[in-house]
Amino acid sequence: MDNKDVISVLNDLIETCKDGEKGFRECAEGIKSTQLKSTFSQRALGCAEAARELQEMVRSLGGEPETSSSIAGNLHRRWVDLKSMITGKSDEAILNECERGEDVALKSYREALEKDLPANVRLLVEKQCQGVQRNHDEVKALRNLARAS
After folding, report:
1. Is 105 within 8 Å of 16 (Cβ atoms)?
2. Where does the chain cross the membrane (predicted)?
3. CA neighbours closer than 13 Å in the CB half-sphere of residue 34
4. Which residues of the chain have a pLDDT value below 70?
5. What does the pLDDT look like over 29-45, one tens digit per residue?
6. Would you say the C-alpha torsion 59, 63, 64, 69 has a positive or negative sign?
7. Most buried pick, 44, 56, 67, 82, via CB within 10 A?
8. CA-angle at 49, arms to 34 and 80, nearest 5°
């Protein structure tokens, strides 16, 4: 991959992180449980930090880093808002949508890791992918608990 392609992959992941940050913040605002509010707020901060790390990497490669979320992420959040109005914003419904968002993030990271990335970039993307997997697994477990309640 040439430098321009690597920067493009990283900028796509920055959008993914920004989507996650906004998504977790909206979940924190909508969820009733104070424990889940705290969990989602922490996940939003983690996504923001991941975006900063990727932005630094883009700058180190001589590129201009992405600074906003994606159109698809904005559309997903609007869909969540609409669906929440219909379902009454139950914790389970919010957790379902949060898990769906993490599915998209995992897919983005896995696609990035299929590319021929430079070693230092690959290490960062792998580390962040593991964090996305942990977020996904935690959200899924919380959703399963809410579903069982």
Report:
1. yes
2. none
3. 0
4. 68-89
5. 878 889 889 999 999 99
6. negative
7. 44
8. 50
